[in-house]
Amino acid sequence: MRHRPQKKHGDDRLSTLIEKLVAIVGKSNVLTAQKDQTKYITDWPGDKTGRARAVVRPANTQEVSKIMEFAYHTTTPVVPQSGNTGVAGGSIPDQSGDAILLSLERMNIIRDISRSAQTIVVEAGCVLETIHTTVEELGLFFPLNFGARGSCMIGGNLATNAGGSNVVRYGNTRDLCLGIEAVMPDGEIMNLLSGLHKNNTGYDLRNLLIGSEGTLGVITAATLKLFPLPKARETCLATVNDISGGLDLLNLIQAETGGAVEAFELMPKALFELLAKHLPHLKQPFTDIPEMSVLIEIAATSDADAKMSESGITPIAQKLENVLADAFESDLVTDAVIASSEAQRSEIWTLRESALEAITAEGERIGFDIALPLDAVHEFVDEMAGTVDRILPGARMLPVGHLGDGNLHYTVFPKEDETANLRKHAADIKAAVYGPLSSYGGSFSAEHGIGANKLAEMTAFKDPAALAVMRRVKAALDPKGIMNPGRMLP
Ligand SMILES: Cc1cc2nc3c(=O)[nH]c(=O)nc-3n(C[C@H](O)[C@H](O)[C@H](O)COP(=O)(O)OP(=O)(O)OC[C@H]3O[C@@H](n4cnc5c(N)ncnc54)[C@H](O)[C@@H]3O)c2cc1C
C-alpha cells in the first residue's frame, strides 16, 4: 500500500491562509500563481520584484477589515498597494514571501460628490485621473496632478502624501483631504470620513495615516476637497538666467496675478537633451536649447479673467504677456514660448511629465528627491555641482523639479562608460548631497517617501527623537508589526 506524502506544516498554513482569503473575497480575487502576481510584485521601474503568499483583492471596506482581522490573528504581514506607481520601493513585498499583498484596485467607487460643499468621497482604488474627469464634468477641479495620474490611485496618493506639480497653489495631498476611512491592523474600521473643515476633537489621526506609507493601517476611502475648475489656463516655457532668476520670476508673476501660479517647474538644458535622446518623438520647443527654463502655468477661474476680448486675448493671457514683457525689460527672462492652444499646452506638459521616463532610460544614476527652502535652491545646486564633480569628475548633474515648492529631483549620471565608478562612489555622492541639506534647512525626502529605498537616510538624517516617537506610534497602533514591515521605519 502506498502512502500519500504528508504535507509540511508550512504548506498546511499556506493552504489555510488561502482558503480563508478565498472565503472572504472569492477565488478569483486571491492570486497565487506567479504569472498572475507579476504586475503587483514588480515595482514601477521594473527593476525590483518581491514575493507574496497571495495577492488579495477585496471589494469593500468590510472585506479589508476581515482580511486584516485574519492577518492580525495569524501575524501575517500585509503590504497595502493601490496603483503600484510608488518609486520608493514601498508598494511591493520583500523577498521573504511571507506577506500578503492587499490590492485596493477593486475598491474604486465614488461614494458621493457634493457640488455645494465642493467635496468628493472616493474609495482608495479610484485612479487619480478618474477623479479628475469625474469632477471636471461638474465644473470642479481636484488639483493633485503628476505624470502617473493614469495609474496611481488616491489610496496610494494619501499613503505617500504625494506632491506633484500643483503644490505651489494647492498644497500636497494632505492639504486636499478632509477625512479618511481606514482599517487598522486588527481589522477595526476607523471612520473619519467627515467633510468638516474644522474638527478639533483630539489627536489628528487622519494626518497620522496620511503619509504613513502603509505602515499603520489601510486607507480605504477619503473625503477630498474640490475647487472651481479653471476656465482658462496659460502655459509657457520661459528662459531664465539661473535658478534665482527663476524664483524672482515666480514672485513677480504671483504678485501680478494675485497668486494664480498653478505650476512652476524647473527644466534645465540637460533635461531637454535627455528627452531628445530617449524620446525623440516628443516635440522640442527650442531650436537652441537654453541652459535653464521654467515651465509656468497660471489659471483663472473667473469669467472676467477667462473671457476673450475683441483683440482675441483673455485677461489672464494678457496678464502673463505683461509680466513676461516686464521680465524681458529687466533681463529676468530672455526668451519665452507661450502655448497658443490646448495641443501646445499638452506638448509642453508631456515634456515635463516624461522626465522620469527619460531619466530612467538613461541608465544607471543616483537620484535624489529633496526639498529645500526656495531661496536655498540655487546655492545648493551650485554647491553640489562642485562637490559632486570633485568626487566623480565629469559627472552630469540634472536638477529637474517643482521649483515653485522647492522640490528638486536631482540626478547624478556618470560620464559615459563610467557606471562602475558611479557605483564605487555612490556612498560618497549620497553623503555629499545629503550632508549639507540640513544646514540649508532641507529634507532628504520631499514627495516620494521612504519606502524601502531610503531607510539608511532615515537612520542617518532623521531627528533621532522624532524617529523614536515614530517607533512608539508604530508599536502602539501595529503591535504585531504586520503593516508593511521593513518599510519607512528603519
Ligand atoms: C511617471 C511618474 C511620475 C511621478 N510623479 C510624482 C510626483 O510628481 N509627485 C509625487 O509625489 N509622486 C510621483 N510619483 C510617485 C507615485 O506616483 C506616487 O507616490 C503615488 O502617490 C503613488 O500612488 P500609488 O497608488 O501608485 O501607490 P502605491 O505605489 O501602490 O503605494 C505607495 C505606498 O503607499 C502604500 N499604500 C498604497 N495604498 C495604500 C492604502 N490604501 N492604504 C495604506 N497604504 C497604502 C504602499 O504600501 C506604498 O508604501 C510618480 C511616479 C511615476 C511613475
How would you describe the overall organization of this protein?
It is a single chain. This protein is an alpha+beta fold. The chain has four domains: 10-103, Uridine Diphospho-n-acetylenolpyruvylglucosamine Reductase, domain 2 (2-Layer Sandwich), CATH 3.30.43.10; 110-228, Uridine Diphospho-n-acetylenolpyruvylglucosamine Reductase, domain 3 (2-Layer Sandwich); 232-355, Alpha-Beta Plaits, CATH 3.30.70; 363-448, Alpha-Beta Plaits, CATH 3.30.70.2740. Helices cover 37% and strands 20% of the residues. It is built from 17 helices and 18 strands. It has helices at 9-25, 34-41, 61-73, 128-136, 154-160, 167-170, 205-209, 243-257, 269-278, 303-306, 315-329, 342-353, 355-361, 377-391, 419-437, 455-461, 464-477, and strands at residues 30-31, 54-56, 78-81, 100-103, 110-114, 119-123, 140-141, 177-183, 189-192, 218-225, 227-228, 232-240, 261-268, 292-300, 333-338, 366-371, 396-402, 407-413. Helix 8 packs across helix 11 (315-329), helix 9 (269-278) packs across helix 13 and helix 14 runs antiparallel to helix 15 (419-437). 45% of the residues are buried. It binds flavin-adenine dinucleotide. Flavin-adenine dinucleotide (FAD) binds at residues 44, 79-87, 90-91, 104, 124, 146-148, 152-153, 155-157, 159-160, 162-164, 213-214, 218-219, 356, 447-448, 451, 484, 487. Flavin-adenine dinucleotide is lined by residues 44, 79-87, 90-91, 104, 124, 146-148, 152-153, 155-157, 159-160, 162-164, 213-214, 218-219, 356, 447-448, 451, 484, 487.
